[in-house]
Amino acid sequence: MEEAIVTKPSGKRRRWAFLAAFMAAVLFLFLNVHTAYAAEGLKLSTDYPGISVKPGDNLNIPVTLDNYTGSGLDAEVKVSAMPDGWEGYLQGGNYQVSRIHVKNGEAGAEMTLHVTVPKELTEGTYVVEVGASSASGLSDTLSISFLVNEMKAGKGSFTSEYPQQEGTTGTNFSFSTTLINNGLKSQSYSLSSNAPAGWNVSFTPTGETTKVAAIEVESSTSKGMTVSVTPPEGIAAGEYDISCSAVSAEETLSTDLKVVITGSYGLKVGTPDGRLSFDAYAGKEADVTLNVTNTGNVDLQDVSLNSSLPSGWTVTYNLENNVIPSIPAGSTTEVIAHVKPGSEAITGDYVNTFTAKCDQAESSADFRVSVKTSTIWGIVAVVIILCTAGGLGYVFRKYGRR
Which long-range contacts (CB under 8 A, 24 or more apart) does 247-254 make? Predict the structure, then answer.
């Protein structure tokens, strides 16, 4: 019986066999990797898939569409899901797009997702989805989360462009202010001030004429207002602080205003009873009581008195050098004027002007002066009339019967 002869492979053949097996393994691994790479198909991505926003934001979010199919293709793209009240679209280049060509491999197609966040929101997380699909059935969806919370909303503000103004007594002040609502919803603000007693403060929305006590401001918007401040008459010089408040159910905002009243000057010449007339006789003095009032809020010094008189008239005052040394703010000084019409003045009405003057102010008043005939001349006239009448009676009696 013949024995089978088993020939062992030589070392060279074993090396070739090992090399063939190694190459087969590498090829198998390469094919598997390539197959997995191609199976990914289309892929949507963005660098920041979760962000925080506030009401009213307008966002521009870069989105990339990659193609791993092995060849370029056209893909349909769209904003596939959007919360109620939100708005959005996809832009490629300078165009709003719904279809985009995507090259194979690493050079993906770039798009921009434009999102408009509503002005009113409750806090929470909102999701926007972008979808891509090809004619061959490949598709992908990208979800982007938007977080809205009170911390992001922040507090509003109430500010004035020029919070300090100055002027004299009688000046009406006007402040331009801005009220900002950074909350997540519209707010109604009640408006008020803590002005000193006697001051008047009012609020008028910019561009309107109606004064308001409250104003509605939408979320993430601002409203301009004019705050009008009227001080009381005769207010003393000084600095006055006025705080204005805007109060809603969510917050209390305030802005501090300052009014600086500078010195105001004024004089007024009159009489205790208000009458600007008096009687006088030719060649005789007539006394007139004058009231000289400081209508400003600063003391006046060295107020001089003078007058404009008809020719031949004179006037003197119960003052040294016709000067009032000082008149405190808001006070009245009484002066006696001694007016003497000329001796040749005839009966009738004349105008006499009295003037009070200092370095800061001046005032005048015109008086009507009625010049009357002296009593002695009236008696003389009566005597003359009686004598004339008696003479005529005598003549008629003596010669009347002839």
Answer: 247/189, 247/190, 247/192, 248/187, 248/188, 248/189, 248/190, 249/187, 249/188, 250/183, 250/187, 251/155, 251/156, 251/183, 251/187, 253/155, 253/156, 253/157, 253/158, 253/179, 253/189, 254/158
Q: Is residue 121 part of a domain?
A: yes
Q: Which domain holds residue 166?
A: 157-262
Task: Give the per-residue pLDDT at 19.
Answer: 61
Quote the strand ranges of 272-359, DSSP E. 277-281, 286-294, 300-308, 314-317, 323-327, 332-340, 348-357
Distance CA 108, CA 158 (A): 48
Point out the residues of the chain with pLDDT beneath 70. 1-40, 150-154, 374-383, 393-396, 398-402
Same domain, 176 and 120: no
| Residue 234 domain-assigned (yes or no) | yes
The β-bridge relationship of strands 238-247 and 41-45 is: unpaired
Give the residue from 368, 360, 364 showing the smallest Cα distance to 270: 364
How does pLDDT run across 205-227, given as a tens digit for each residue? 999 999 999 999 998 889 999 99
- The pTM (predicted TM-score) of the whole model is 0.47
